[in-house]
Design a protein that fits this description.
Distance between the termini: 38 Å
Order of helices and strands: EHHHEEEEHEEH
Number of strands: 7
Number of helices: 5
Oligomer: single chain
Strand content: 15-25%
């Protein structure tokens, strides 16, 4: 049984910063929510709340921080090690995911649209996301964490090549 080779190109090293900013902003909301929930439930003196929790309401946010912060710190580096992409001949090959892996092969001849997007954090880090869409959802692909210039050039190259292949087919 042959093994599937890795796509040739990594995403930008700045993608680690993007993923770190995204996970820390989500973590901040979760930590603040756990603090407020712990404070509210612990200070309520409701009969269904165990007495030990009413006095130690701070355990909930402490547990969230103890578990969440290391995951936020490690996640971007694991994602960076896994996320790759390649334009090989007439196929876009992308691999993503660190909990569940996804390998996507998109034939250039099937591409309907190529979109380049930037969120707030991506603009801050001069990164972009490339969305390659086909008529089939299963054949579509998203490559997150590309340098803006690389994403722009790849989007133009894919659009041009897809147009050439469509013209050849008619």
């Amino acid at each position: 049984m042959s093994r599937l080779r890795e796509p040739a190109h990594r995403v930008s090293p700045r993608a680690r910063g993007l993923w770190l900013l995204q996970s820390l902003s989500g973590f901040a909301v979760l930590a603040a929510g756990s603090f407020l929930a712990g404070r509210w439930v612990g200070g309520s003196r409701w009969s269904w709340v165990p007495p030990w929790f009413q006095d130690a309401w701070w355990l909930l946010p402490a547990l969230v921080v103890a578990i969440g912060l290391p995951l936020c710190a490690i996640g971007p580096f694991v994602r960076y090690a896994v996320h790759r992409w390649e334009l090989s001949g007439d196929v876009v090959y992308a691999r993503s995911g660190f909990v569940t892996r996804e390998w996507v092969f998109v034939p250039v001849s099937r591409i309907q649209t190529v979109d380049k997007t930037q969120g707030w954090f991506e603009r801050l880090l001069n990164l972009a996301t490339l969305q390659i869409r086909t008529a089939s959802h299963a054949g579509s692909s998203t490559i997150v964490g590309l340098d803006y210039e690389v994403a722009a050039a790849l989007a133009e190259q894919l659009a041009r090549r897809a147009e050439e292949l469509r013209d050849d087919a008619t």
